[in-house]
Design a protein that fits this description.
Elements (H helix, E strand, L loop, with lengths): L17 E4 L4 E5 L2 E6 L4 E6 L1 H8 L4 E2 H11 L4 H17 L3 E4 L1
Antiparallel strand pairs: 1-5, 1-6, 2-3, 3-4
Length: 103
């Protein structure tokens, strides 16, 4: 599994990384969509599909690999593709201060 993260060697995000919603982030769901407010910038974000599902699953702190395992049971996709897609979503949400890496 580690080999599948080779393209992301400079990232602190690894399969064992613990993820959590950043403090103060507000979220509201409407159907399959989710609207998030990052309080320090007062910026709104919209999520749908797998992005919204990732955020929903991270209401409880989880390891990246556990998040992928759960999503594998919900989507018809191979593990390597899902890991890369989830990695991209999580990294975007970390950069936007919506999620944090737990150390």
């Amino acid at each position: 599994m580690v080999a599948e993260f080779d393209q992301h060697d400079n990232s602190p995000l690894q399969p064992s990384t613990m993820l959590a919603i950043a403090p103060g982030v507000l979220a509201r769901s409407s159907g399959s969509e989710m609207v998030l407010l990052e309080p320090s910038t007062e910026q709104f974000f919209g999520l749908e599909g797998v992005g919204a599902r990732i955020f929903e699953l991270l209401r409880e702190q989880r390891r990246f690999s556990d998040l992928v395992d759960i999503l594998l049971t919900e989507y018809d996709i191979d593990r390597a593709t899902l890991e890369n897609d989830v990695w991209a979503h999580v990294e975007d949400m970390v950069r936007a201060n919506l999620l944090r890496l737990v150390v």
